[in-house]
Amino acid sequence: MNEGGKGSERAIFEEIHTAIIERRLQPGTKLGEEALCEIYELSRGQVRRVLVELSHSKVVELRPNRGAYVAQPSVREARNVFEARRALEAAIVERAIDRVTTSTLNRLRAIVEEDRQALARGDREASIKLSGDFHLCLAEIAGNDVLTGFQRELVSRSSLIIATFGEADGPECSVEHHGGIIEALEFRDGRAASCLMEAHLVHIEGRLRLDVDAGKSPPDLKAILSRG
Amino acid sequence: MNEGGKGSERAIFEEIHTAIIERRLQPGTKLGEEALCEIYELSRGQVRRVLVELSHSKVVELRPNRGAYVAQPSVREARNVFEARRALEAAIVERAIDRVTTSTLNRLRAIVEEDRQALARGDREASIKLSGDFHLCLAEIAGNDVLTGFQRELVSRSSLIIATFGEADGPECSVEHHGGIIEALEFRDGRAASCLMEAHLVHIEGRLRLDVDAGKSPPDLKAILSRG
DNA sequence: CGATGTCATTTTGTTGACAATTTTCCGGTA
DNA sequence: TACCGGAAAATTGTCAACAAAATGACATCG
Fold first, then answer.
1. Helix axis angle, B33-40 to B8-21, nearest 10°
2. With a CB-CB cutoff of 8 Å, which residues 92-111 of chain B face chain A?
3. A151 to A8, B113, B122, B142: CA distances (angstroms)
4. Rounded distance, CA B210 to CA B147, Å?
5. CA A208 to CA A227: how far, in whole Å?
6. Does the pTM exceed 0.90?
7. Does B154 touch chain A (CB under 8 A)?
8. Domains, chain A, ordered by start
9. Is the CB of A4 under 7 A from strand D?
10. What is the pLDDT of residues A178-219, one digit of tens each?
11. Do B147 and A84 touch (CB under 8 A)?
């Protein structure tokens, strides 16, 4: 019954991280130390370390003397993350083509199938997580831990970006896109896979509201109005 | 006179990081907490945070209950880092071509010139740092903070890899290669720049002793000798 | 009515003492 | 000499009390 044991720190990290990625914790939400201590029965020192870890993975922002908050990506950051993703996923697909096997293909298929079922029963949270898992699994197939680490960071940040700038409505098409990529991998058609991945990412980014005006400006608005 | 002030934590981080990158601290060196406390006049808590930060940037390895050591990259890790670098630097060059200006070109030229002078006076440490700065500066020209962050990590790790698997002798050719890349950028010749960068990285990796046998085995050696 | 300043409360940051673990040293034994 | 224990020293990990800062409530003033 050791809730406050040793390895549990990693577990708490995963729990909070997943909650943010699945958008149960919205951008800007404050993560008070005392609150987390009570929820997870950890000491403040442990909670503090977890928060540092989360900030390092870019899903939490640490404001000195102010506390920890779920990160609120800027428009610029959003563009940069997606630009980096296009470059990184291209490299990953290129390498995955050479290393994909029947077994790894089936892992990808299983993820997409789970995603399809999640969407069918309206479980949006699970679908978000599974869509990310697809891209992560692809990185693992590429067989380079460094690239996988980068991919992990970018996939997490993408989810946060979509939570911030995405529209809640609209059809979900990850399943179809991912299916297409699997097919291209199956035939070891590198060019097709790259193009489909590129199109997939462009499609996702295109659905974001990245007009510089929209996003975030409660204090800026007052400054602007004071001039009128 | 506040050596133990607030912002000094970042300064100590940079100091140790630089010492590792310049190979004054060799891979495997133990970084004892007490020792660092005395050297920098910091509390243990502060030193501890710096060590966590360094481990997060992959130049220090934290072994639980054992302490902090300058990281010793494995052969596999070395290959992965260089593979990732080839992909990342290609993306960076591609974007830098579109954004390079006279001013940023001059920054690159200044770095290479400093590097040339450092080599001329036999200052190998400075040369190592400056070679890394060139690649970092290139990433900054590309204008994407995410890519720059990844590049920073990879450049640091590369230096550690060269310290571990590189040969001390041999001619240094970064200055020539970097000069060529600058020229290609000047003429906005993306293809030439990419090829030169690729060749540069392949050349560096090719000079490493990445035979799986060679690398690391002080305990293994004893085991081998016991058979003779 | 809004703005400003002060004080109590809450939250975050730091330190030093204590606990747990590892490393080192040393004597005993075959 | 080589090889085990086992205590002592050194090192790392943890926590709880204390200090510092931010937040919110409230009174005062324009």
1. 120
2. 95
3. 25, 36, 40, 20
4. 27
5. 30
6. yes
7. yes
8. 8-70 (1.10.10.10), 75-206 (1.20.120.530)
9. yes
10. 999 999 999 999 999 999 999 999 999 999 999 875 544 444
11. yes
